[in-house]
Amino acid sequence: MSENSNLGGTGEAGPSGGQRIISSATAEKKSHWWIWVVGALVVLALVIYVRQRAASNQEKVKAAPPAKGVPILAAEAKKGDIGVYVEALGTVTPVYTVTVTSRVQGEIVKIYYKEGQMVSKGDPLIDIDPRPYEAALTQAQGQLAHDQAVLSEAQIDYDRYKAAYARNAIAQQQVADQEQAVLQDEGTVKNDQGNLDNAKVNLVYTHITSPIDGRVGLRLVDLGNIVQANSTTPLLVITQLQPITVIFSVAEDYLPEIQKEIRAGERMRVDALDRQQETELATGYLLTLDNEVDPTTGTVKLKAQFENRDNVLFPNQFVNARLLVKTIQNATLVPTQAVQQSAQGPFVYVIKEGGIASMQTIKQGTTDGDVTSVEGVEPGATVATSGFDKLQDGAKVAIRSGKGTGQGGNQGQGATSGEAPHTAPTPSANTNSRKATPPAQGNSGKSSSR
Questions:
Q1: What's the pLDDT at 41?
Q2: Which among 334, 329, 342 has a CA at the least distance from the CA of 407?
Q3: For the domain with range 105-233, which CATH number is right: 3.40.50.2300, 1.10.287.470, 3.90.226.10, 1.10.510.10?
Q4: Nearest-angstrom CA–CA distance, 287 and 302
Q5: How far apart, in whole angstroms, are the C-alpha atoms of residue 211 and residue 209?
Q6: Which residue has the higher pLDDT, 421 or 227?
Q7: What residue ranges do the domains of the chain occupy?
Q8: Does 450 have pLDDT greater than 50?
């Protein structure tokens, strides 16, 4: 019996001298109690660390400065004047263009001009061999002198016959015949005088001069060339450059307003811009308009005149003509880039107190380059001119300093290059957009504050 009891545990001597048996499982538990204590301490340390870290982060967040708003450029809406323009593609047309041809036949013996030279009226251009025409002039002079002598002799005979008839020495028929002979010789003398004058004119035609002030084109003939009288082949072409005109076409819808200004005696200003509508080439005034509307295009032609003192306008050059129809006084002006479009029409972002952007629906008027007249914005209000890709109604903004924008304001230059217009959510207010003056080739040019 005692042997079996020793199989399950370790025997110890009891108080009574017997052995006490202890199981191996109980002994193992008592020997690993410290592991549980260490684990609890580690968990407690982790909890304390996490809480301290979170508290530190909260303190940093509280100490950090508030987040900045959307960076934008801005400008101030102002009161000012703006022009209403009609724009169209025009062609520079000289007032005079002369194609010089020869009126006599002969050899070119001298050329006075150089290609591209500016000439004045009366300046020599070309000489044609004058010798044949000098000889013809001498012949005409000789023939005239001969026939004048014959006429003088006939006149003397006529006077003698009249005296003889007064004494009844000759018949009246002889006097009448002599009178007719005198008339015949007078006719011959007049014919000779005409031939003489024609010879003089032909001699003058051998010396070709400029009929107008203008610019000579490229040389078309050379020394030694034989020219024909009244040939259609030109010797040279001269175009007048000062003044010069521009012909352009506008839609017939603008005709009543243009005619109203013409009847009122207004001298309507016309600007000539380059092809990109970025540079103003010259400034002139409306000269006249055509007498009919082209039924195929629904347009009417207008002609403007320019002094062209610096010769910047060149014949047959294509330019963008911009006609100032009228000037709107005391309009509210904002930079053009401040005006954005939504499904309900145009709007601007007005910057309220505290730097909060508020979407404001507007009525858009005429646009002149970088300035647009609007209704719905008070003068003095600050409007955003950039940052539209991030702007929303109620967003906080941070206005950056930037270059001025003409009459629309002096705090912002507008959206950066390549920035797409922002399509905003539907504004709460209704808007009735007023269409700006439709240009024929797009809006461009200088500021229109007049």
A1: 78
A2: 334
A3: 1.10.287.470
A4: 8
A5: 6
A6: 227
A7: 2-39, 85-95+239-326, 105-233
A8: no
